[in-house]
Design goal:
alpha/beta
Length: 222
């Protein structure tokens, strides 16, 4: 299966349970969710006029919204050709779960990589059973998509952006009835605002949850 890839780059995972881990980010093109604070809006539309050759999305600037078709196998070849050494792959977007990721994730895991998906939870998660799924629930966004129970149940980690008490209440409503056994729950302050960070710390301490700070923004790396 071919997937629309916006960019591929090697860096350090900056947030969530794998903070600090060297990672290969594979950013897929396409997202109808419409988050107001999205910092990758160039990935929203899969425009025919922005299609480029496969090598033009490897270790390049993806901010202009171009994309190329790749399979799991062609991406693995690209990793090797570029000399990438990270063994943790992060599938992000855009919204990666717009696509059935079963074939791609099977290819990566068969090749010895650890795989993580970062998703809004608004589309069904289809992937290899060994994939670590991080759901960052996007509630009442412009696109009008609901966070799916299937995505929350499949999640290994639920990483929720917060700025106000309302965001915590939204998360509580989503998690009502979900078996949280074995799941990591993270709160991530939106835009590193002081009040949001204080709120997230307070709730994490009270509930024994985990604070997720976007360390890559402090380090000024992708």
């Amino acid at each position: 299966m071919k997937y629309p890839v916006n960019e591929v780059f090697e860096t350090i995972q900056g947030e969530g349970s794998f903070t600090g881990v060297p990672a290969l980010f594979v950013r897929l093109q396409g997202c109808p969710v419409g988050c107001a604070w999205c910092d990758t809006k160039q990935t929203w539309d899969v425009l025919a006029e922005n299609k480029v050759s496969a090598e033009q999305v490897i270790q390049v600037d993806g901010t202009i919204g171009r994309w190329a078709e790749h399979t799991g196998a062609t991406l693995i070849n690209a990793f090797l050709e570029k000399g990438f050494t990270a063994k943790h792959i992060v599938l992000t977007g855009g919204e990666p779960c717009l696509y059935d990721l079963t074939e791609m994730t099977h290819d990566f895991i068969a090749a010895g990589y650890q795989v993580q998906i970062e998703t809004s939870g608004t589309f069904e998660v289809k992937c290899h059973d060994a994939v670590w799924v991080t759901v960052s629930p996007k509630v009442n966004m412009k696109g009008g998509y609901k966070v799916l129970e299937q995505a929350l149940v499949r999640a290994n980690e639920i990483k929720h952006p917060v700025a106000t008490e309302k965001h915590v209440e939204e998360l509580d409503a989503l998690l009502n009835g979900i078996d949280l056994t074995g799941k990591t729950i993270c709160l991530q302050p939106i835009s590193q605002k002081e009040r949001a960070t204080a709120l997230a710390m307070k709730v994490c301490i009270a509930r024994n949850w985990r604070l997720s700070i976007q360390t890559h923004k402090y380090l000024n790396i992708d």
